UniProtKB/TrEMBL annotation:
Protein name: Transporter
Membrane-topology annotation of the record: Multi-pass membrane protein
Location in the cell: Cell membrane
Any one annotated GO CC term: plasma membrane
Residue ranges of every copy of the ABC transmembrane type-1 domain listed in the record: 64-255
Organism (species): Acrocarpospora pleiomorpha
Length: 270
């Protein structure tokens, strides 16, 4: 009975999560009338042209490229800064390390909207207001507190005996980081990458305020609202949303599989 109950609950939860996704996809292939009259039914007429209309109207091709560029560069910068910082904090257990860790933790106390005006002023002073480059620098700064704290916890699981053995073999800090800590903390690196990818891809407030709505620099989240008007075609809007969600969903699926493989490999080695 317990196994049956667990199976029923698992499938019920999966269906609950899949229902909004199904509604979004089928709505992308319908007209406004059919969306309201037959919301969960399959389309009577499959309007594949909704995707083409959304693509052209919101210029989603350029917007998707901008989002990919900003997200990838921001993730690389985040990892380049967070991984060495986490390594240093994981190797130390003194008062200074605890103060630095507490400083990173304090970053969670600052709500994003409270930093909006100072960030805009900073972008203007740097001459980067309305550019993707500032977004690439700002996003890693906002992601560092969580990234450093998560990676620090993963790196503290590295066995001290393994570190001592590598150090006796002549490994310096760089060799320890790249050959010992990063491979063992790979699930943490992948977890941070997935988490920050979702955060960077869905970022809207600062993208709209700082990067702006110009077609050559706006991200996909800023481009999507251009499909909304007094006579919004909800099918086209849903199609645009599907196109915006699809890349990050594919990336999430691939990286999540890599994280599971890393966790399994670590369990087997252990």
């Amino acid at each position: 009975m317990r196994k049956l109950l667990a199976t029923v609950l698992s499938w019920s939860y999966a269906l609950l999560l899949a229902a909004p996704l199904y509604y979004l996809v089928v709505s992308a292939l319908k007209s406004n009338i059919e969306i309201f009259t037959r919301p969960f039914a399959l389309p009577a007429q499959w309007l594949w042209e909704n995707f083409g209309t959304a693509w052209r109207t919101a210029d989603l091709g350029r917007a998707l490229l901008n989002s990919v560029l900003v997200s990838v560069v921001a993730i690389v910068v985040t990892l380049v800064l967070a991984v060495p910082a986490a390594y240093a904090l994981a190797r130390q257990n003194n008062r200074l390390a605890r103060v630095i860790t507490g400083t990173f933790s304090a970053g969670f106390l600052i709500p994003p909207f409270a930093a909006l005006i100072p960030t805009v002023v900073l972008a203007i002073e740097m001459g980067l207001f309305g550019t993707r480059e500032f977004q690439m620098l700002f996003l890693p700064a906002s992601a560092l507190p969580l990234s450093v704290l998560l990676l620090t916890q993963f790196m503290r699981t590295v066995p001290p005996a393994l570190v001592e053995s590598a150090a006796l073999d002549g490994a310096g800090h760089w060799r320890l980081l790249t050959s010992v800590f990063v491979p063992i903390a790979r699930p943490g690196v992948v977890s941070v990458t997935i988490l920050q990818l979702l955060t960077f891809w869905n970022e809207y407030l600062f993208s709209l305020t700082i990067t702006g709505t110009a077609p050559d620099v706006r991200t996909v989240q800023v481009a999507l609202p251009t499909l909304v008007s007094d006579a919004t075609n909800l099918g086209v809007l849903a199609a645009g949303t599907v196109l915006a969600v699809l890349p990050v969903y594919v990336a999430y699926s691939i990286m999540n599989r890599r994280m599971q493989e890393a966790l399994t490999a670590g369990a087997v080695k252990g």
